[in-house]
Design goal:
This protein is of the alpha+beta class. The chain has helices at about 15-20, 55-70, 90-100, 195-210, and strands spanning about 25, 30-35, 45-50, 75-80, 105-120, 125-135, 140-145, 150-165, 170-185. The strands form two sheets. Strands 1, 2, 3, 4, 5, 8 and 9 form a seven-stranded mixed sheet that branches.
């Protein structure tokens, strides 16, 4: 099975943890490879692989993709359910997974581009004021202390992911899409997983629309 270059190294995604806590619209999806005529679709068993630097991020996306595939009636298994953060991310690791679960297609998502722009934000100062009388009539001593927090940073991210489907039988890539997301992250936002959920939905819906999934 050819897994091309995606198995040669772990993809670095340093900003993904920050990207997760975000205000984002659904990704814009473009085709990078239409379904090949040689594709042996529809596929019955999918091995789902996400290649990011952070193991937890890989697991989150894989889990969501499997959930979405289950909703359309397709059987799928995550690679992270059969490995841990110390397992080598190499071709042989995934070939053994394919043999173990009997997968007929491998779905691989990886980072194509991540650009981040930070905007410095001034914080609102707080002050305390103390009044004290003096020895002079109607004269007061005033002491003001101002507390200013360090500046914070708001981020705007441009995230591009590519997802490819590799046929186990044909040993080639038979389908691919590219998804682009614009994401705003305020300095005080708490992380959520809307970006991962939106990506998983987009991947699954396009697989289904292109007739790659068995029901």
């Amino acid at each position: 099975m050819k897994l091309k270059k995606f198995c040669s190294k772990t993809i670095i995604l340093l900003g993904i943890a920050a990207v997760l806590g975000a205000c984002a619209t659904g990704p814009q999806v473009t085709k990078t490879l239409d379904v090949r005529e040689s594709a042996d679709a529809p596929y019955q068993k999918v091995l789902v692989i996400a290649l990011f630097d952070a193991f937890d991020t890989r697991r989150y996306l894989e889990d969501e993709v499997v959930k979405q595939l289950a909703e359309v009636g397709t059987d799928a298994v995550t690679s992270t359910s059969m490995m841990n953060s110390r397992t080598p991310v190499i071709r042989q690791t995934f070939v053994e997974m394919v043999d173990k679960i009997g997968a007929d297609v491998v779905l691989v998502t990886q980072l194509a581009s991540l650009k981040s722009k930070g905007t410095v934000k001034d914080m609102s100062p707080e002050a305390t004021i103390n009044f004290r009388p003096t020895y002079y009539y109607n004269v007061w001593s005033v002491e003001q202390t101002e507390y200013v927090e360090p500046q914070a940073v708001d981020f705007e991210h441009s995230l591009v992911l590519t997802t490819q489907a590799y046929s186990v039988l044909k040993q080639e890539s038979v389908w691919a899409i590219e998804s682009r997301s614009k994401i705003d992250v305020d300095f005080d936002e708490v992380a959520n997983y809307s970006v991962i959920l939106n990506e998983a939905k987009a991947i699954t819906s396009h697989l289904a629309m292109d007739g790659l999934l068995a029901k």
